[in-house]
Amino acid sequence: MLDLTGKNALVTGIANNRSIAWGIAQQLHKAGANIGVTYLPDDKGRFEKKVSELVEPLQPSLFLPCNVQDDAQVQSTFDAIQAKWGKLDILVHSLAFASKDSLGGDFSSVSRQDFSQSLEISTFSLIQLSHAAKPLMTEGGSIVTMSYLGGVRVVPNYNTMGVAKAALETTVRYLASELGSQNIRVNAVSAAPIRTLASSAIGGFHDMMNHVEQVAPLRRNVTQTEVGNAAAFLCSDLSSGITGQILYVDAGYEIMGM
Hints:
The protein has about 260 residues and is α/β, with parallel strands linked by helices. It has one domain: NAD(P)-binding Rossmann-like Domain (Rossmann fold), CATH 3.40.50. The chain is built from seven helices and seven strands. It has a seven-stranded parallel β-sheet, sandwiched between helices. β4, α4 and β5 form a beta-alpha-beta unit. α1 packs across α7. The termini are far apart.
């Protein structure tokens, strides 16, 4: 029933085969979507080569460098979409960053620079990309981002990223309100802890995963595929009446008090 045939989907945030964005991209491709992928450029081209080899089975029709801290590069990305596709139906925002120093220790010790950088990459980028995508979503569309429970409750060592996710979830609601009249829906998936490149920087991450397995109603963690399926649902017409929501894919952990 989940059919994305003929839909153009831009997926950001794939770094390796553990990335949540990679799980989402695979499910979008499986549902028939035409995939475009961005990667974070670096001086030696390491990310470009790694991501290019990983996504080759998806046969992306667009493969573009996009550093969201570079306005010209963001504009170039969406110019390329306009030239190649003419329209955009789906935007997957799976971008987040916090320095290692701001993922541990006293939260009150975070530096201005680290705080600002985290909010810029993790939260403002959703506003930035949505603004660029809006003119291309001429037939409506779906924007999906990735959140985590640490934006709602205190999670040890999550610190600055918790603030960024709280801001991200509020951003989802404000964008949903703005873009709804154009039939553009904006939602977030809040996933349980998953081993990714980003999560490896969080102190005590393995303890977090073990805790979820012990406490969550399903007594387990979730997989990339499960998160990808939920995101694909939010990108499809099956969720046509849903916008401004945070969908928890965490084996039920969010409902528990203790």
